[in-house]
Amino acid sequence: MENTLAYARQMDEKDVLRGFRDKFYFPTFCDDVIYFTGNSLGLQPKSTKEYIDQELSDWAKYGVEGHFLAERPWFSYHENLTSKAAKVMGAKNHEVVITHSLTTNLHLLMVSFFRPEGKRTKILCEAKAFPSDQYALESQVRFHGLDPKDHLVEVAPREGEHLIREEDIYRKIDELGDELALVMIGGVNYYTGQLFDMKMITEKAHAVGAMVGFDLAHAAGNINLALHEWGVDFAAWCTYKYMNSSPGGVSGMFVHERHAEKPELPRFAGWWGYDKSTRFLMEPGFKPMFGAEGWQLSNAPVLGMAAHLASLDLFEEAGMDRIGAKRDEMTAFLEFVIEDISEKNKDRCTFEIITPRDRNKRGAQLSILAHGQGKSLFDALSKQGVVADWREPNVIRIAPAPLYNSFEDCYRFGQCLEKAIQ
After folding, report:
1. Helix (H) or strand (E) holding 370
2. Are 147 and 339 in contact (CB under 8 A)?
3. How many Å apart are CA 310 and CA 81, to the nearest integer?
4. Count of beta carbons in the 10 Å neighbourhood of residue 93
5. For residues 315 and 221, is the Cβ–Cβ distance under 8 A?
6. Which residues neighbour 79 within 8 Å (Cβ) at sequence distance 6 or greater?
7. Which of 325, 103, 78 is nearest to 224 (CA)?
8. Which SS3 state, helix, strand or coil, does residue 75 take?
9. Is 165 left (phi over 0), alpha (psi -120 to 50) or beta?
10. Could you tell me the sign of the dihedral formed by the alpha carbons of 172, 150, 210, 97, in that order?
11. Which of 10, 109, 203, 232 shows its CA 20 to 30 Å from the CA of 197?
12. DSSP tally for the chain: helices H, then strands E
């Protein structure tokens, strides 16, 4: 690799996904934006307006009859998303449903899959999980009359380290044994960008009789997933980060097919999860739909789903294999650029990338510790049009999204970083 504009442009010429960049809007609040926050909010596809306008037009034309007469009938609108989302998640169609919001879905799933009984009462999670996950887990434990101090177990990085060693997760699973009810971990840690071995975690937890779920907010549309093959019991994800599906957009749920037809599973039910063939008979007694659809509560938020459909169509066109290949190449180049800048300026400032170097242990995110610099460095980057993310005490998170970022973006970021030091 070379930290040169010529090399970056050469890589862009070879990029089979380069045409997708023109399918997105880039912010215009300042000139020459370098947008590296797809791990927080993805850019808007240019097709999104068309998809939403179609539903607005059908609403104006048909009113309530749009549930059946719209171009994409609202009654079954979520079904337009299912197979496309399943491809991204590595799942079977009946294992996936798009509905609600992320933390809502995590709660609904934990109602079914966190069932403390006897001595099996504990949840294992990672330390420094995303705060919403932490609050959700604590409240689930309390919901069952238990104390999080005793029943919520965290695995943290070892002293002086930034990443969680996976052998420590496996050791803790074995240690808890028949006291472990659920493992619930973020598939990609939001702070460090560390990708966990979800297949192995699932195998280890199942071996001691525990359920396994993942928050895939930072993995969906970023990591090449195989949820069905890995045997994960459940997962949930948002769609507004790497999947570019509008601020606070709809969420997804995965429930492995081994749980597809278990009406006896406790759940918080709603009428949209009721068997659709008899839903409108309005009969008492909840009869859940087969598969993940049985965890739905309310009818589809069509406008949000329209935005998600616009993005899913781009993902289907690009394909996760090609997205993953570019992700690895571009992230590696960005890592090289940062380390080159760090070496050249080591007398004033050094940068430590705390995200794993192994491309099999990360996605399209690099978390940078800026030694010798504070938030003023981040502010200097922002003034140059770099849209990144600051996390206390001194971490800058950047995420080169394969669908719309370029190798030239990575080179230009390096130039901005060097200027910000000065």
Report:
1. strand 366-371
2. no
3. 10
4. 16
5. yes
6. none
7. 325
8. helix
9. beta
10. negative
11. 109
12. 14, 13
Domains of the chain: 5-31+320-421 (3.90.1150.10), 52-318 (3.40.640.10)
What are the CB-based long-range contacts (under 8 Å, 24+) for 118-121?
119/178, 119/179, 120/178, 120/179, 120/180, 120/181, 120/209, 120/210, 121/146, 121/151, 121/179, 121/181
Quickly count: other Cβ atoms within 10 Å of residue 139's Cβ. 12
Q: Give the whole-angstrom CA distance, residue 146 versus residue 196.
A: 28
Q: Given this model, what pLDDT does residue 393 score? A: 81
Alpha carbon distance 380, 420 (integer Å): 5
The three-state secondary structure class of 271 is: helix
Record the tokens describing residue 414, joined without a space.
């390096």
DSSP 104-152: HHHHHHHHHH---BTTB-EEEEETT--HHHHHHHHHHHHHTT--HHHHE
CA distance 238 to 219: 9
Residue in this structure with the two tokens 């080179």, named with its chain if needed: 411
Other CB atoms within a 10 A radius of the CB of residue 148 amount to: 15
Burial class (CB in 10 A: 0-12, 13-18, 19+), 411: buried
CA 69 to chain centre: 34
The CA distance from 215 to 250, in Å, is 14
Alpha carbon 319 to chain centroid distance?
A: 17
pLDDT tens-digit profile of 154-186? 999 999 999 999 999 999 999 999 999 999 999
Q: Which two tokens stand for residue 228?
A: 């069905």
CA dist., res. 43 & res. 36, Å (int) = 10
Structure tokens at 270: 């709603």
Pairing relationship of beta strands 389-391 and 350-353 according to DSSP bridges = unpaired
pLDDT of residue 83: 98
DSSP reduced 3-state for 57: helix
Rg (CA), the chain: 22
On whether the CB atoms of residues 195 and 363 are closer than 8 A, the answer is: yes
pLDDT band at 89 (very low <50, low <70, confident <90, very high): very high
Q: Is the pTM of this model over 0.70?
A: yes
Residue 378 CB partners (closer than 8 Å, separation 6+) = 370, 388, 390, 396
